[in-house]
TrEMBL record:
Keywords: ATP-binding, Kinase, Nucleotide-binding, Transferase. This is Kinase-like protein. Gene3D superfamilies: Transferase(Phosphotransferase) domain 1. It comes from the Eukaryota. GO terms for molecular function: ATP binding; protein serine/threonine kinase activity. It comes from Gigaspora margarita. Pfam families: PK_Tyr_Ser-Thr. Residues 25-288 form the Protein kinase domain.
Length: 343
């Protein structure tokens, strides 16, 4: 039935989640937009509190409503973690257009924060951010939820702390997880291997994304910022390249993110192991080491055996034009910006 998920939303009002009349909000302004809809900054007048209203601008087919219900349920389940954006409830505009009511993050996205503040960040701050991101993802994994879309525009900053956001693509691992959206440079490269056409995104895919973000926190730069999207994944898949280590990075920290971005998912650590390793870093230890040109080795650029570069190029090209099909009922789509959530 086309209204199945709409009925779930209607029945869930004030039972499963808080419902706010739309006229409870004032000073509504567009903050950002993406492939699924818009994010608005608004004031909840009853509490004189800023909130984010997340809309869904696609047509309200049953499949689209299913995405909304999925995100509502996941947000509700993970709401207690201090590094996950708070889910406050839902509101509705005319025409059954539902919006999520979320905590407003006053510091914008991790990407915008790094652009503005990186030169003033010391390693205590960098380690804090990395540990908080890993803690949030580890919590999801403890509930058997994979995020599938971890990148710096889906990581927000509020009062100088991390808030992981955007669960529209998250799935419990029992659900088919071959479809993927997101920022290309952070996606598990196994997705692009034609030899792995049945490869399913997993917790280890999130681990890969976190490894790339840990490098970004250490450098302040977008990974492979001088290379275009097609060339990035070609080089990652075919030549197994990874970003250069930044001098001054704690040795333990760089060892962790290098393990996370291993090409073979089976070699990557679990998020729980990553979290434990990060917690053991002591920046004040007398034996603490940082990377320098004399004690670091660059990642290997050895070609991956049995890899067809033409297949990879075709796969990535299709991915960028929304036409890649891994099987009859599963396609990979690409949304470069997601929710900008900028100021």
């Amino acid at each position: 039935m086309p209204n199945d998920y709409l009925n779930i939303l209607e029945e869930g009002r004030n039972k499963e989640f808080n419902f706010y009349p739309f006229d409870s909000f004032s000073d509504i302004t567009l903050s950002g937009s993406g492939g699924f809809g818009n994010v608005y900054k608004a004031k909840y007048t009853a509490a004189d509190m800023l909130v984010a209203l997340k809309s869904y601008e696609k047509s309200y087919e049953n499949s689209d409503l299913k995405e909304i219900v999925n995100e509502l349920r996941i947000q509700k389940n993970v709401d207690i973690h201090q590094n996950i954006i708070r889910f406050l409830g839902v509101t509705k505009q005319e025409g059954d257009k539902y919006l999520l009511v979320l905590q407003w993050a006053d510091g914008g996205t991790l990407r915008s924060y790094l652009e503005k503040n990186f030169l003033d960040m010391n390693w205590n701050k960098k380690l804090q951010f990395a540990t908080q991101i890993v803690s949030a993802v580890n919590y999801l994994h403890s509930l058997d939820i994979i995020h599938r879309d971890i990148h710096p525009k889906n990581i927000l900053i509020h009062q100088e702390n991390i808030k992981l956001a955007d669960f529209g693509l998250s799935r419990r691992i029992t659900v088919n997880s071959r479809c993927n959206f997101g920022a290309l440079r952070y996606i598990d490269p196994q997705v692009f291997m034609r030899s792995n056409q049945n490869y399913e995104l997993s917790k280890k895919s999130d681990v890969y994304s976190v490894g790339m973000i840990m490098w970004e926190i250490s450098s302040g730069k977008i990974p492979f910022c001088s290379i275009d999207d097609l060339d990035v994944q070609r080089e990652i898949c075919f030549n197994s390249i990874r970003e250069k280590i930044v001098e001054g990075t704690p040795i333990i920290y760089l060892n962790i993110y290098q393990e996370c971005w291993e090409n073979d998912p089976d070699i990557r650590p679990t998020m729980d192991q990553v979290y434990d390793s990060l917690k053991k870093i002591n920046l004040n230890s007398p034996v603490f080491q940082i990377a320098s040109s004399s004690n670091i080795s660059l990642p290997s650029t050895t070609l991956i055996s049995n890899t067809n570069s033409t297949d990879i190029e075709l796969c990535i090209s299709g991915f960028l034009t929304n036409i890649v099909h891994q099987n009859n009922d599963s396609s990979i789509r690409y949304d470069d910006d997601d929710y900008k959530y900028e100021f």
